[in-house]
Amino acid sequence: MDGTAAGPAQRLVTIVENRPIARDTYVLRLDDPLTASAIRPGQFLMIRPGGENDPLLGRPLALYNVVRDPGGTAVGFEVVYLVIGRGTRALSARRAGERLSIWGPLGNGFGPPPAGGAVVFVAGGIGQTPFLALGGWWLGRESCGGVSYAGAAAHSATLLYGVRTSELAAGIEDFERAGIAVEVATDDGSLGRRGYVTDLLRRRLEGGARPGKVVGCGPPPMLSALARMAREYDLDCDVSLENHMACGYGACFSCVAPIVQQGGGTDLRRVCVEGPVFGAAAVDWSA
Amino acid sequence: MSSGSSAIVAGARSEVIASGSIGKVVRRGTLSRGRLQLDEGRLIRHDEDRRDLEPAAVDDPEACLIDLRVKLGRLELRNPVLAASGTCGYIRELAAFVQLDRLGGVIPKTVTMRPRAGNATPRTVETPAGLLNAIGLDNDGLEHFLEHHLPYLRTVGTAVVVNIAGETIDEFVAMAELVGAAPGADAVELNISCPNVSHGLDLGIDVRSVAEVVTRVRRACPLPLIAKLTPNVTDLVVIARAAADAGADAVSLVNTFRGIAVDWRRCKPILANDFGGLSGPAIKPLALRAVWEVARALPALPVIGIGGIANIDDVLEFLVAGASAIQVGTANFYDPGVCERLVAELPAKLEEIGATSVAEVVGTLRSNR
User: Fold this and answer.
1) What pLDDT digit, counting tens, does each position of B218-242 carry?
2) Considering chain A, what is the average pLDDT of its residues?
3) Interchain proximity B337–A86, CB inside 8 Å
4) What percent of chain A shows pLDDT beyond 90?
5) Where a domain ends, among A199, A221, A239?
6) Percentage helix, strand, coil, to 5, in chain B?
7) I need a labelling partner for B107 at 20 to 30 A (CA). Which of A127, A176, A185, B234 fits?
8) For B259-300, what is each residue's pLDDT tens digit?
9) Domain closes at, from A106, A128, A144
């Protein structure tokens, strides 16, 4: 995290909206001007879904979108989550007007875009969520955390989005509205192309495309395949890891990933404080 | 940390010692009417007649009349709330959410002589009202700790208890000697109870080993010494007595309870390490039982209560059950600001029962039988 990012804080914030947008998938909008004006794409929040003791822990959720008032002032933010366990199920039962304990912004977030270049986002499962805010930021349309790339924006942004089936595809219209082209792959062929999302990238690369930056977020096998492809085509590639976390702020050492160290060897490093964004080549995918 | 007067004011209801080491807990602007205030060494009630007490005045440590200081053998703390080892990283992490100089003390993550990579993932799994962990003492070793973490810890403005784990008794002794020789530590806590590395737990379940490690560390290191004990024993009192007799200033009760979480579809334990240590609100009654048992059997041994403490009522429960101080553990993970809030809430809770000090409520739990 560089000097421009504000430090994290814990606060109680009010739910503005908690609405389904696809099968088992919700967008949660929180009223929180402080976080909204500080957070940058790639950073995340810990959000405690439950009551007193159960579910106990917060859940790490990436910034999806900064909400602005008509004057452009950041007044809140959105996260998008898939119901996959007790925590997200409890979160889906919370209603507008209720308050949630959150702490953030957390993590390092993304760096600058390749000025004038094309960026490609590669998402699997619920991994599309960091890319809406990132696209708007890198295309120079939005200032996030006090940083704007309007003078050094990416030329274009494309989301390659892989989900199991069409019912799980969430937020495609949000991306298109933000000026991000979307191409979908599904396991069952119910939407877009049938196959892996990494196949979509390979077709582009084989067709001669050379994006200035590729960013991936999704299940480890997908990211591992993406990292291989990035090496093969010598692409500038970052990944945002989604490791299991207990605290989100570096206290518990649960979320470690094998990271290649300067001077050789790998070490298990905390994704919450040293990531979640890493260079694809910095992750030891063999571990 | 400062410790102006060494006397703990126990049971003093009509006067206090204006020594400057009274617990600094009342934050600017948070004074409520009816809160006890200090005036020229006498107790008064802050009421309509004292409108001239500007909020700024209450930031003065001497302005808080409830005596929060605690004494754990040779270790004196400004209040009884500590952040537990393994739940607040190397304290830098917690600093984003907590004004550290409000706390009684901080205990950074266990350090071992040599760097340890720790266990594979998954290292933690949430359980009903609890957390099962098997981190495996992931740390960069003592040399790194002394060079990179201790200099920072010297600046945090609260007591620093360095938690160490050796693979052998000799290693415990060698580490304690190095920690004692390096400026910055106010006390040493011996982790002879980690359930996720075999040596730690083996040591903590054997009376003779506990006696030997405490005796030898005490000889090698001038700092106050705390033994953090495992509850995974048949009789905790026997172990605690061994630690006390060997010269421990206090015991921390309890480390985590060994458990497993099962993925029945895969027929596998969820944790990569199979076994983990259970913490969180789920273990609070077990920890309270341990504290009460030991405190009753060994009234002269200061006990630091740990186990599922997450709110101010939990704190009072442990104090009443016999803990002279408490450590907040797992709650730091899901409520990062909790430690500072507990310190802020403690005076009003003590006032509620007419107490003017922490010390006077410690160990006041009476049997129904």
Assistant:
1) 999 999 999 999 999 999 999 999 9
2) 95
3) no
4) 94
5) A239
6) 35, 20, 45
7) B234
8) 999 999 999 999 999 999 999 999 999 999 999 999 999 999
9) A106
DSSP assignment of B118-146, as one string? Answer: -PPSP-EEEETTEEEE-----B--HHHII
Q: What is the pLDDT of residues B3-27, one digit of tens each?
A: 333 333 332 332 232 333 334 333 3
pLDDT tens digits along A125-151: 999 999 999 999 999 999 999 999 999
- Complex ipTM, two decimals? 0.95
pLDDT tens across A40-93, in order?
999 999 999 977 899 999 999 999 999 999 999 999 999 999 999 999 999 999
What's this model's pTM, rounded to 2 decimal places?
0.89
Catalytic site residue from B64, B194, B221, B339: B194
State how beta strands A193-194 and A237-240 pair: unpaired
In this structure, what CATH number is given to the domain that contains residue A126? 3.40.50.80
Within a domain: A198: yes
Does B329 touch chain A if contact means CB atoms closer than 8 Å?
A: no
- Nearest by CB to residue A53, choosing from B89, B96, B129, is B129
Q: Find where tokens 């009509």 sit.
A: B14
Q: State the DSSP string of B275-339.
A: EEEEESGGGHHHHHHHHHHHHHH-TTS-EEEESS--SHHHHHHHHHHT-SEEEE-THHHH-TTHH
A87 touches chain B (CB under 8 A): yes
Q: How is domain B70-352 classified at the CATH fold level? A: TIM Barrel (3.20.20)
- Based on the residue annotation, tell me whether B194 is a catalytic residue of this protein: yes
Task: Count residue pairs from A and B with Cβ separation < 8 A.
Answer: 97
Q: Which pLDDT does position A204 carry in this prediction?
A: 97
Is A99 a member of any domain? yes
**Domain-embedded: residue A151:** yes
Strands B159-165 and B75-77: unpaired
A231 and A122 inside one domain: yes
Is residue A1 in a domain?
no
Same domain, A162 and A273: no
Which residues of chain A does B333 touch, with a Cβ-Cβ cutoff of 8 Å? 57-58, 246-247, 251-252
Determine, for residues A251 and B336 on separate chains, whether the beta-carbon distance falls below 8 Å: yes
Residue positions counted in chain A? 287
List of chain B residues whose C-beta atoms are within 8 Å of the C-beta of residue A87: 126
Closest alpha carbon within chain A to B84: A251
Cβ of A250 within 8 Å of Cβ of B89? The answer is: yes
Mutation target to probe the A interface, by most A beta carbons within 10 A, among B121, B256, B339 is B121
Interface mutation vs chain B, best among A247, A255, A256, A286, most B CBs within 10 Å: A247
A258 and B CB contact within 8 Å: no
